[in-house]
Write a structure and sequence with these properties.
The protein contains twelve helices and no strands. By secondary structure, the protein is an all-alpha fold. It has two domains: 146 residues, no CATH class; 57 residues, no CATH class. It is flat. The model has no long low-confidence stretch (mean pLDDT 79).
Length: 206
């Protein structure tokens, strides 16, 4: 519904779900388009959010050790859930089964519910009148909140929110999301500067 409410057609919505199988990137893209951002800016924000899946792939390639011919197809299913299930398994065989079952079931259900949601959006008319334009950000926050377990992670999230909201009135739609990505290196740099003197102090005490 969020995608359809952002102006995408039924075909475009379903194609996006089929080809970009990562929820955070999809919500970022349609959110930027809904706010009036350009296609390039929206795609850039979605790309940066999807970069984490590349790191998942590096770990899963070692764990699953799939044949080369299969890897391009398996890459489509490298997401948070399949990674978590695969890493939790005791053996390589179990990890492969977990990856296959989780990836297949989520891919089918995700695209089925996308189709139903897009059809529902067409049926109810103006999604903004129902407040469904806020569904994307709400779902994204619900996915993000459980992952913020340390003080550093919370600081990154807080700074990203401040940058995104603060720059929203002065920058084109979609650009504040890209700028908010700078929150991670800034917080990590500050954390390193803060912990470095402590490390030197401990070494001096020894």
């Amino acid at each position: 519904m969020t995608s359809a409410g952002s102006g995408l057609s039924l075909l475009q919505t379903c194609a996006l779900s089929l080809l970009v199988f990562t929820g955070a990137s999809q919500f970022a893209l349609v959110g930027a388009l809904a706010a009036g951002g350009g296609a390039v800016t929206a795609a850039a924000g979605a790309f940066f959010l999807g970069v984490r899946n590349a790191f998942y792939g590096l770990r899963l390639s070692q764990l699953l050790a799939l044949p080369r011919a299969v890897r391009p197809f398996a890459a489509q299913w490298v997401i948070d859930e399949t990674t978590a299930v695969s890493l939790a398994q005791p053996t390589r065989r179990a990890a492969r089964i977990g990856f296959l079952v989780t990836g297949l079931s989520l891919y089918v259900l995700w695209n089925l519910t996308t189709l139903l949601g897009a059809l529902g959006a067409d049926a109810i008319g103006d999604t903004e009148a129902w407040g469904l334009d806020a569904a994307g950000p709400a779902v994204f926050l619900a996915l993000l909140a459980p992952m913020l377990r340390t003080g550093t992670e919370r600081a990154v999230a807080a700074l990203a929110v401040l940058l995104g909201l603060g720059l929203l009135p002065v920058l084109p739609a979609g650009v504040p999301v890209l700028v908010a990505a700078l929150a991670a290196p800034v917080v990590l740099w500050a954390h390193g500067r803060r912990t470095a003197p402590r490390a030197h102090t401990k070494e001096g005490e020894r």
